[in-house]
């Protein structure tokens, strides 16, 4: 009887590192999925829904100039690395330090990150509301911006949190029809409704 074929998504469960990810990801059967790992445990998520994808690009256009004027670099998803077995792919990432090497360009050190922006996904609500903010807080990321869009309900909200004594505390929050206005980590002003297609 032949041995079962090696399947990295199964056989490396709990063992994932950035080196193994470089070797085995993306999985040919799931090329456009998002791959994140926490303590060696891999999490695979489908590509974002259109509403979130549209909102991410719209938010980037609304805040990019202010971020750059304040000396930050705004990018889309990156592999934000906390340690060899832990990385996430934020929807938008604000860096205060650019990667210096090819390795850092692929696995951006979390110490270079000023703010993680996450758009809530229906399939990952617990991760977006609990797991990712907790990981970013423990990793020392100074700011966390969470956006939630529900197109069919015309719902849009944005909440900015600042790291204080190891925990995220709310700074600014607004829903559709209100003005979200923040001065840190750089000036931002928009109506969350603008993020809906």
Automatic annotation (TrEMBL):
InterPro entries linked? Nuclease_put_TT1808, Restrct_endonuc-II-like, Uma2
- Report the GO molecular function annotations: endonuclease activity
Q: In this protein, which residues make up the domain named Putative restriction endonuclease?
A: 31-187
UniProt entry keywords in alphabetical sequence = Endonuclease, Hydrolase, Nuclease
Out of the domains of life, which is the source? Bacteria
What's the protein name? Uma2 family endonuclease
What is the originating organism of this protein? Natronosporangium hydrolyticum
